[in-house]
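Reopening this one. Same input as before:
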Amino acid sequence: MFGRDLLSLAHSGFVLAREGAFAPVDPQGLPAGPRLAIGLARLMEKREGGRKLSGALQRLGPSYIKLGQFLATRRDIVGREVADDLASLQDRMPAFPDAVARKAVEAGLGRSIDEVFSEFGPAVAAASIAQVHRARLKDGRAVAVKVLRPGIEKRFARDLGTFATAARIGERLDPEARRLRLTAVVDELARSAKIEMDLRMEAAAISEMAENIAQDPGFRVPEVIWPATSKRVLTTEWIDGIPLSDMDAVRASGHDLEAVAVTAIQSFLRHAMRDGFFHADMHPGNLFVAPDGTLVAVDFGIMGRLGAKERHFLAEILWGFIRQDYRRTAEVHFEAGYVPRIHTVEDFSQALRAIGTPIRGQSAQDISMARLLSQLLEVTEIFDMKTRPELLLLQKTMVVVEGVSRNLDPAFDMWSAAEPVVGEWIARNLGPAGKLADAAESVGALARIAGQAPGLLERAERLAQDFAEAAERGDFARDTGDATDRRTLALWVGALALVAIALAQVF
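Same output, byte for byte:
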């Protein structure tokens, strides 16, 4: 197994070297062995073409493409320049034969194609993990059928083993690799790939988002056809729309592109802040404009989640920059525990002002929210803010969505579009309504505790009995009084301990 991984690494290294992927690496300061390896790699470079890591990973196949896409969200590991290159990776692969796809669908659904579909056409899109076919159900509805590539799980398992070996070797040889916890990064990639290769998980993500956005204007997701969905097959309604990747067709359609641009960014911010659950791969090929102007998202294999603290953080920092309240924005970082207390709010506020002040006086369309968030994450590194992968995924997605909106409307005012959504979240969660909701939640929790009172008292009595018996046996260092006093004291100690445990559940 180890020998096979080494051979695989050697082949990958050769391809990376040929494509010039090691060109940006500065060998100065490296140990003699790695420095020699970089020198040999550069001798193998092709002289024509660009020097891009993304091109090398594209050549190495599906697992490496996913590795690159994953690392594009971890600029804390690969750096900004490499991350920007990897973000350009396109998930396009040759389609596998229709006959193979049909067999895979039948095996996945446990029924013949003819039992489920009246029509089943050729592949219309093919990616590293799956491909999509247009089909028609027996009831006449047009659907998109996504089917996993045969053997993709084994391919990923083999390549993930190679990545793990490379990470272990790197951590043994280089202290910087240990600091970046490369083996943990590979483990994170493995978990992500496992979820993406179970299409029931994608179906569940679509279903969850559909519930979240049921009342949202101008944005929707496809309906999942659950009877025709399994671990290896996902069937959804067919979207009759124009992909935003075809801007000529979008412009020719006569849709209000300014309105679509606003919908794109506002929808993303609602999903991230309100729901804590967002589509993390909103590139133009995954967004369609329906005939009625509605924006429809597809391909939910990569999703992002934010906890309550992260949502609070995102809303307040955006609101702080919108209002130019740098002191409050700094305080939010400290309240969230993102910046260690060895630093001061005043110093951090000063650093934020250094980001925010230069954008004053600029026209709104010249101010990039994604770039500002990127600069913010860079500054927080100076202040020893620990890496937050979920925030990096958020920032990467915001870059993509902002690009989509600006492509639709070059004069797009990002801040004016964001302000209603961010302001609504602030009012709902941090204003009087939010405080009332928090109070109601606390009251509800106390009511639940009250309902548990008989059980708590019974547990307190048992604890008191144990406490008193131990006292009578002389298990404590000195006498606390007569048996009755000891029993009373024990009862109160036990009751107070249980109340403290119960209140901890509330606060």
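So the earlier flakiness isn't reproducible anymore. For the record, The beta strands are 117-126, 130-137, 142-148, 219-220, 233-237, 242-243, 277-279, 287-289, 295-297, 303-305.
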